[in-house]
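Here is the promised in-class demo. Please do not try to memorize the tokens; focus on the logic of going from shape to residues.
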């Protein structure tokens, strides 16, 4: 990142918006909504993905923004924390009005306040954390929250919680989720949304809570990449994804099929294969495993049991 126009940059604080939420909840949609909402501001974007290759950054449409992508881990864990700090310092030297951070789906942002305070003397301009937004998947929340501690941590660290996909759940389920979230974080504003409508953002929200973090290397799930050298048949791809998703938190990427490029997003039993106009040099899928010790060779066997094309595994 190259900063120009230092003479015009004053010492005013850079507004910081943090977006958290579990895999597939709608964080990237929320990020795009914020970009559209703040078109009049000079933006910095920091996009963090747990997988080894960046997918979400390629889907973002923005002009003139400074963008930093940090992949293969969480920015709050030791694996990427150093790079995250360096990125914040770099952004503090740029003539931006606002920095929006999209955390990985497995991130625990509990310590963001402490981290920013520790950098006070290293930043050219300070950051002011105005919003910590947690995007909750209304469709899968009840299934996920009891087994994934990261979701509760994300909720407790937010001052605005969006219950996304409200159009896919009934009113009783929405009311129950709202009640449960209110117990976890009674001070947060809770807003049901579909497609992450962010018109509800207001200023002057409650301060962010600092709570004990669970960003430790031993909690890091296993990930790997699947590559497809040849064009793939959509029906064979769907057959594989439906079964492979049972062993994964999420599968996402871009695959070239006989019908063109497809964006893949699989979470639990929900599999999306959507045509897209993105051109890639190769077909790749990132798999984030539920169990770190799951044998990756079972995915190769699963593919070969039904597919007529080759699949490669990148460790």
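The designed amino acids, position by position:
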């Amino acid at each position: 990142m190259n900063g120009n126009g230092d003479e015009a940059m004053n010492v005013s604080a850079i507004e910081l918006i943090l977006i958290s939420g579990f895999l597939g909840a709608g964080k990237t949609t929320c990020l795009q909504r914020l970009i559209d909402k703040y078109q009049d501001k000079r933006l910095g974007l920091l996009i963090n993905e747990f997988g080894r290759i960046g997918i979400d950054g390629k889907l973002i449409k923005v002009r003139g923004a400074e963008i930093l992508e940090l992949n293969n881990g969480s920015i709050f864990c030791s694996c990427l924390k150093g790079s995250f700090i360096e990125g914040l310092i770099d952004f503090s030297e740029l003539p931006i009005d606002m920095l929006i951070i999209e955390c990985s789906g497995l991130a625990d942002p509990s310590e963001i306040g402490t981290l920013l305070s520790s950098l006070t003397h290293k930043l050219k301009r300070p950051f002011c954390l105005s919003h910590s937004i947690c995007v909750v998947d209304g469709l899968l929340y009840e299934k996920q929250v009891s087994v994934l501690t990261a979701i509760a941590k994300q909720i407790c660290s937010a001052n605005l919680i969006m219950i996304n996909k409200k159009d896919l759940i009934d009113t009783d389920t929405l009311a129950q989720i709202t009640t449960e979230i209110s117990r976890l974080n009674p001070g947060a504003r809770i807003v049901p949304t579909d497609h992450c409508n962010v018109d509800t953002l207001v200023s002057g929200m409650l301060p962010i809570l600092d709570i004990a973090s669970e960003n430790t290397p031993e909690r890091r799930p296993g990930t790997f990449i699947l590559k497809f050298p040849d064009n793939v048949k959509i029906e064979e791809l769907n057959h594989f994804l439906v079964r492979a998703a049972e062993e994964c938190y999420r599968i996402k990427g871009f695959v070239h099929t006989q019908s063109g490029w497809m964006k893949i997003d699989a979470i639990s039993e929900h599999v999306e294969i959507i045509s897209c106009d993105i051109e890639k040099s190769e077909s790749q899928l990132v798999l984030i495993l539920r169990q770190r010790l799951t044998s990756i060779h079972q995915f190769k066997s699963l593919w070969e049991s039904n597919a007529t094309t080759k699949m490669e595994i990148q460790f």
